[in-house]
Amino acid sequence: MSLRISSRAVSVFLAGLAGSCLVGLAAYGAEILNPHLAVFQFVTSGAIGGALAAAIAGNRRDAVWAVAGLSLVIFVACTRPGTGALIFRDLLYIPTLVASVWLSWVAVSKFPFALVGRVLVWGVAFALCHFAMFGMLTVVNGVVFDPRIAYAATRIGGLVGLGVGLGIYIAGHVGLAELESVR
């Protein structure tokens, strides 16, 4: 296993992070920079999603799991969850991002979408995965389903996906990164 990080991987990572942050800034303003708010996910999910996309772009499954594991350790260390419910949330968050990025990448590599369609697929995949995560957390924690909170979680997830997808495909379109299909 090579530990060398290609410039293409760095471009995909930075493009995903930048795209997510730009969409977050457009939708929520500077609030996305407050780590105590849910919209900080534009930064965290953009960084993790960009890193996962870079690993997938390089066809490096080992790197996908390394990014996921490292992200989980850093995320749990930063959030320091104090209850079982918060620990479960954090343990579910990273696999949700892995599923979101993988589903997005597979879907756009299998079907010939135009650029706008590709970006929308990323948004829909992230939204669906975040809604599923919210549903699992609701059931596990035994709380009443609140459609307003479900909408907020799904909206943030979808917008993060739009941002990550937009950043990655703009980077690919301007030649910063060559994007391949998943094998």
Tell me about this structure.
With 183 residues, the chain is an all-alpha fold. It is 76% helix and 0% strand. It has one domain (7-173). The protein has six helices and no strands. The mean pLDDT is 86.
Compute the CA-based radius of gyration: 16 Å
- Number of β-strand runs: 0
| H/I helix tally | 6
Structural class: mainly alpha
Low-confidence segments? none
Number of domains: 1
* Order of helical and strand elements: HHHHHH
Termini gap = 18 Å
Looking at the structure, what is the overall shape? globular
Mean pLDDT: 86
Largest sheet: none
Binned strand content: under 5%
Overall helicity: over 70%
Short description:
By secondary structure, the protein is mainly alpha-helical. The protein contains 6 helices and no strands.
Characteristic key phrases:
76% helix; 6 helices; 183 residues; single chain; mainly alpha
Task: Compile the SSE list and pairings.
Layout: H1 7-28, H2 41-57, H3 61-79, H4 84-110, H5 115-141, H6 147-173
